[in-house]
């Protein structure tokens, strides 16, 4: 057995919600201009980017003031007249503005697959603040909430996702770009159960230890709302058989936890696996991955 630690809840603060602005009609194909700049216009509908809605309206109004004048002028003058500063002012303005918006867009993290994926984003509430690198997640049946990692998406395949009043099963996959960039990527699996007892939860914990722990090693901690049993190990294949090594001597690539409600009636089993593109060149940061998993399991809150 491990030691117990009292912890505080993760901070959750609410921000004022804002309604997205609607685009104004304009004779130029502004959608094409913005598409060419950002390669994806979906970010205008994202709840975290009200700034871009306002910015788009301002740009359209600016162009509207110059449109008729520019159109008639260009029809009457020679090409050389296009060098006149009166014509180039709005063009330069758009170039500078486009670069600034692109930079702000990147800093805003809108390239995050968690927000771009329609299925995944339907579970997230960007108005609830979390630590950097996470989003607030609410399960479909409102059984539990947690901090969802940025850069991950939920697989909506019926065989990999199930949501019922007393049982939920979810798989989270990391954006494959990390596999290409860093040589490894993550996978998270959650199983929620309701109408449980402490005895049945411990049976589940024993199965978890048999599958993923090294020599049944784990630790226990208690927050203000949950009891957590957790651990890690290094799992590899040798002669086509799974072999588990001590995470103190090998970089852990498997993390596991059973998060239980204080009344013992609900629990969630969490498994986090790290998959390397090339085992020899896979540089896993134990401290970083342990902190990542710790943040996830501590953020879980049961809603019933």
- Share of residues in strands: 25-35%
State the assembly state of the protein chains. single chain
Order of helices and strands: HHHHHEEEEEHEHEEEEEHE
As a percent range, the share of helical residues equals 25-40%
Please tally the helical runs, counting DSSP H or I stretches of 4 or more residues: 8
* Anisotropy-based shape: globular
Mean pLDDT: 76
Cα Rg: 25 Å
Structural class: alpha+beta
* Uncertain spans: 1-54, 91-96, 98-109
Through-space gap between termini: 29 Å
Number of strands: 12
The largest sheet is: 9 strands, antiparallel
Secondary structure elements and pairings:
Elements lengths: L29 H9 L11 H27 L8 H23 L5 H4 L1 H4 L12 E5 L5 E6 L2 E3 L7 E2 L3 E8 L1 H7 L1 E10 L4 H15 L6 E4 L3 E13 L2 E5 L8 E8 L5 E10 L9 H14 L1 E2 L2
Antiparallel strand pairs: 1-2, 2-12, 3-5, 4-5, 5-6, 6-11, 7-8, 8-9, 8-10, 10-11
Helix pairs in contact: 2-3
Name the descriptors.
304 residues, 8 helices, 25% strand, 12 strands, three-stranded antiparallel β-sheet
Task: Give an overview of the whole structure.
The protein has 304 residues and is of the alpha+beta class. Helices cover 34% and strands 25% of the residues. The strands form two sheets. Strands 3, 4, 5, 6, 7, 8, 9, 10 and 11 form a nine-stranded antiparallel beta sheet that branches. Strands 1-2-12 form a three-stranded antiparallel beta sheet. A hairpin with a 5-residue loop joins strand 10 and strand 11. It starts with 29 loop residues before the first helix and ends with a strand.
């Amino acid at each position: 057995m491990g030691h117990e630690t009292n912890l505080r809840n993760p901070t959750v603060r609410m921000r004022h919600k804002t309604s997205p602005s609607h685009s104004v009609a304009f004779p130029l194909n502004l959608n094409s201009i913005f598409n060419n700049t950002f390669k994806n216009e979906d970010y205008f509908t994202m709840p975290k980017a009200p700034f871009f809605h306002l910015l788009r309206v301002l740009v359209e109004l600016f162009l509207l003031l110059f449109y008729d004048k520019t159109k008639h002028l260009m029809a009457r003058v020679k090409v050389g007249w296009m060098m006149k500063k009166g014509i180039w002012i709005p063009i330069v303005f758009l170039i500078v503005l486009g670069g600034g918006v692109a930079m702000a867009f990147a800093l805003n993290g809108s390239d995050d697959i968690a927000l771009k994926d329609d299925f995944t984003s339907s579970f997230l509430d960007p108005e609830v603040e979390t630590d950097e690198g996470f989003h607030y997640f609410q399960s479909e049946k409102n059984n539990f909430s947690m901090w969802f990692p940025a850069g991950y998406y939920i697989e909506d395949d019926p065989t990999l996702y199930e949501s019922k009043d007393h049982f939920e099963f979810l798989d989270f996959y990391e954006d494959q770009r990390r596999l290409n960039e860093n040589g490894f990527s993550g996978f998270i699996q959650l199983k929620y159960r309701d109408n449980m007892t402490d005895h049945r939860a411990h049976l589940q914990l024993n199965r978890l230890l048999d599958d993923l722990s090294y020599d049944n090693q784990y630790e226990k901690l208690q927050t203000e709302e949950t009891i957590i049993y957790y651990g890690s190990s290094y799992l590899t294949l040798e002669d086509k058989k799974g072999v588990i090594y001590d995470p103190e001597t090998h970089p852990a690539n498997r993390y596991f936890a059973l998060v239980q409600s204080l009344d013992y009636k609900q629990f969630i089993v969490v498994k986090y696996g790290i998959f390397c593109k090339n085992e020899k060149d896979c540089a896993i940061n134990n401290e970083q991955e342990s902190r990542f998993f710790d943040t996830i399991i501590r953020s879980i809150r049961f809603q019933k």
